[in-house]
Amino acid sequence: MTSINFRYFIIHRDSKRDEPEGLFVFNTGAGRFDTIQWNWLDKAWVVSGSIVGYLVRNRGEAEETTRSRAEEVATHLGIGPIPSEEEFVRISDLFEDEARRRREASSLADPDAAPDIT
After folding, report:
1. pTM of the prediction?
2. Most C-beta atoms within 10 A of its C-beta, which of 19, 20, 25, 80?
3. How far is CA 97 from CA 48, 50, 94, 100, 103, in A?
4. What confidence tens digit (pLDDT) does each residue in 9-20 have?
């Protein structure tokens, strides 16, 4: 089984860190880089590579925390229970499978298109 090494982060409204507004996680286990955040519009945990850029640009607004503290924040925000780490891996794998299917369908629709190497 692949190594799981999730880190949990609270997103705050500002650098004062006194009002949480969201959560995200990322896994840097062997051969993985899963980035997943709670999406308020979809009301679901979604893969979001852009969260890494957010973390780099807004370090004062993101605070690394423990899973148990993240669960408390999720309850406070009305998000509900946080998925297990295995469920987070499954969310990421489903996203990757769907992205691969889209790339394959796109290349079949336009065989002269340059290959997508992302």
Report:
1. 0.75
2. 25
3. 15, 19, 5, 5, 10
4. 998 876 666 788
